[in-house]
Give the backbone structure.
Amino acid sequence: MKYRWFILGLWLLISAWQNAIQSVSVDDFAKAIEKYGTEQLIDVRTPAEYAQGHIPGARLVNIYDASFQQKILEGLTKSKPVLIYCRSGHRSMVAARFLAEKGFTVINLRLGFNDWKSKGKPIEK
């Protein structure tokens, strides 16, 4: 009986995350940047990956940093979505779930920076 409540709670939590996180294509991510700007555009890759190229205007917050949870929240507002990406979409989804738990709406670049770059979208070094 107590497991039923646990499963229901887990299901509600997952449903809330899904409503707070959109995982989108390169073109839709580019449209989101146009619409919302880069104030909340976050790259969660490592500093070495970021130095090799990143989406213009992105702020680096290394997901492997011990103070990642504190750093990613700095300067964010819940009044507009957080745009987030990594190399392939996996690390950014972990970060997106964390932000969704904190009440943020998140737009995740589904296949990450590799897809962005392969589609010829702008990058800076």
Q: What stands out?
A: The chain has a mean pLDDT of 90. The first helix runs from residue 2 to 20.
